[in-house]
Design goal:
Layout lengths: L1 E4 L8 E7 L10 E8 L3 E2 L6 E9 L3 E5 L5 E3 L6 E4 L4 E5 L4 E9 L3 E17 L4 E8 L2 E5 L2 E5 L3 E5 L5 E19 L2
Antiparallel strand pairs: 1-15, 2-3, 3-10, 4-9, 5-8, 5-10, 6-7, 6-9, 11-16, 12-15, 12-16, 13-14, 13-16
């Protein structure tokens, strides 16, 4: 289990949490997980041949228009939103800046899923991918996997590349975590 710790992202910037290959840039990744601070309305970057999933970690949220569809409100309380990276996306801040969590995979080589998990007490979380990222969005969580125990604070991420079918996760108070599973297709 590898642990990554990020401080809040500066306005208008993105911070890479993890990627493959590890030295990848925004132009040549197989998969990428990042956090970004959005502080102005405007279009998202376009990523051809990429699947994206977005969640709001901090702030009131975003109103997204994706490929001329009806606006969608994405808040801290929303389930993660998946959409194609080549779709034009225009974002409007609901009420001030947000920090978002973004997972992207190159569609022909990888796939991913992201889910939001509220934790109170101890629970088992089933996973089905060989690579899992656990992002603590709020609170403090203890993660037990493969005889290792680590504690994640807000904005900490655990990267597990030897994943048991079930992870044991606990919190003494209500905590929020995102589980990102990444699978190679070929």
């Amino acid at each position: 289990m590898k642990k990554c710790t990020l401080t809040l992202v500066p306005p208008g910037e993105a911070a890479q949490v993890a990627s493959s290959p590890a030295s990848a840039t925004i132009a040549d990744f197989d998969w990428r997980v990042s956090m970004a601070r959005v502080d102005v309305d405007g279009p998202f970057s376009i990523f051809p041949h990429t699947d994206r999933t977005l969640s709001v970690l901090r702030g009131d949220g975003l109103r997204l228009c994706i490929a001329e569809s009806a606006p969608i409100e994405l808040t801290r309380y929303s389930e993660p939103l998946a959409f194609p990276g080549e779709a034009p996306v225009d974002a409007t801040l609901i009420c001030g800046a947000v920090t978002d969590l973004n997972a992207m995979t190159q569609r022909e080589r990888f796939t991913h899923s992201m889910r939001r998990v509220a934790i109170a007490g101890r629970m088992e979380v089933a996973v089905q991918a060989p690579l899992v990222l656990l992002v603590c969005a709020a609170g403090l969580v203890k993660v037990e996997a493969n005889d290792q125990i680590d504690t994640l604070d807000s904005l900490d991420t655990a990267v597990l590349d030897q994943v048991p079918e079930t992870l044991s996760i606990s919190s003494d108070c209500v905590a929020l975590m995102y589980v990102i599973e990444i699978r190679r297709l070929k």
